[in-house]
């Protein structure tokens, strides 16, 4: 496929949006095709790739990122149904790198980053195809600071990840760097971009600030910035949680807790917005703004005391939905399109490889967003680490635009990050997302077999089981 043909596919795919009904073939089906390759003639036209990944950023945070929205959403594509396939940091990041569900890439929790097969990663494909690759900020939880991230030519990897005066693996040398981490990441990314003035290779930059993760420490200049008031949503003041799983019944988060958390999160994101604007301006100065494919999203959402829960890791919309913007003017993605398709972090790697003209030689679960592919539902999954009491049970969920069915299991991950347990179903939930978008009424609570038949639960359970084994 020529570059012009590929751009045309991109324009059609994005403009089709939610109206698309024809499913494109899974890139996983192409696993037996030729290995990753790109011809020298195509190299000059291939886009640069910039992935900006925030940490624990839920939706409804656009107040803090107006410059990001103005560039990447208002002039790019705003995906209204952006999701993560696992609402936890390391599994989500591994899905971005590999285009695979967590049960396939193997990073099921935050303790086992070395379970990721680095051969499956987008950075491996891009570097092999002649891209200059860079990583700046957070990589994978529990990654050892002295270990260099595979398939990156340049990196500034922070471990442990903190807001101020962190320790960094700086191209193989571990040392302290003073300053606010978002600013440190911004400056090093800008230096990486600057090299494009003399290095003709296309580049890939993965930029991952700590914001807006706890403890949500803002940059000093934003420490006291006034934040618009927020008075919660129906899930925050839910009067009766008896139809929810035990850990939600025992949750104690309040509206006041959520308001304080939200203020802290928004203030940290103000510095991310400054960094994104700096990237925009640098690309414009380099003449590379048009042919850079940019993604902006969170690695998971976060609940603001919805159902009393003040974290992530749960199968509720504030936890699994994220801001999701894409821009690529040279590929036809620069006109402020709104796309209502169900998309997820597993779609990023396939999209990048599609744009770069690279055919993967390993299976992927996601699909290129440059096609008209439109899924009718998404598998979202999460694993409990260890056997300690409290916290969410392992779960998997069938999520469509109209309904959500969730099963909780007697499963946990062991010290090696591998699943263990009986697998028995502990609890189930079903929500009508059209009439109950805040997930207040679990229709399976005290439901009869006849009720379950009318809700279509047997078919949903079968579909969920098929997804989990795919």
From TrEMBL:
Could you list this entry's UniProt keywords, alphabetically sorted.
Signal
| Presence of keyword Signal | yes
Q: Where is the signal peptide?
A: 1-31
Coiled-coil residues: none
| SUPFAM superfamilies in alphabetical order | Alkaline phosphatase-like
Going by the entry's taxonomy, the superkingdom of the source organism is recorded as Bacteria
Query: Domain named Sulfatase N-terminal: which ranges?
Result: 47-358
Q: Which Pfam families match?
A: Sulfatase
Specify where the region named Disordered lies, as residue ranges: 215-248
Cross-referenced PANTHER family: N-ACETYLGLUCOSAMINE-6-SULFATASE FAMILY MEMBER, SD21168P
Q: What is this protein called?
A: Sulfatase N-terminal domain-containing protein
Instruction: Give the species.
Output: Kitasatospora indigofera
